[in-house]
Hints:
This protein is 26% helix and 22% strand. By secondary structure, it is of the alpha/beta class. The chain has 2 domains: 2-53, no CATH class; 61-191, Alpha/beta knot, CATH 3.40.1280.10. A 7-stranded parallel sheet has the order 6-5-4-9-7-10-8, with helices on one face. Strands 1-3-2 form a 3-stranded antiparallel sheet. The longest helix has 14 residues, at 71-84.
Amino acid sequence: MFVAEGEDLVEAAAGVEQVDLLVAGESVEPSLLAEVSTLAHPPRMIGVYRRDDLPRGTRPVTLALWHVADPGNVGTLLRSADAFGAGIALSTGSADPTSPKALRASMGAIFRVPIVPFDEPAGRRIALVPHGGTPLAELDLSGEIVFVLGAEREGLPHEVLETCDVSASIPQQGESLNVAMAGTIALYELTRR
């Protein structure tokens, strides 16, 4: 189980069955809610949900995250996937998408975007690498696509790169993009065509 803190996240979870709803001043003392909250300012409500009730399955476009350990990046990528109609695939070693920081960064997308294990999505696997790949704008992005993104510091290991059909890079002048930015740009590139 996990909790969604605040009215916005509880509202975003409208399609997912609640195990419980704690409302300050109604079903629980405000001081108790403030004590268990991870937020700087205590929420008016906290919804309790089952992980098994979150969306599962694949979509024609997926962001596959390899060891993306920062919950803020996982949540932001969920939000981007929601905006562009994609799914998410997570490897072991990735941040828990139901952690408080990931939930807040997702802005409720966790309740709409299907999440599956890293190797489950079918489609052409495109590794996003900082440099040396085919420019993303030059790739054929038709059919089912899985954009494979690596950990913030380490990137994608050789054994993961070998499972990909092609490596792609986003042309840039700096060293590299944040993983959430790279995933969002890739989704935009695919949908703008």
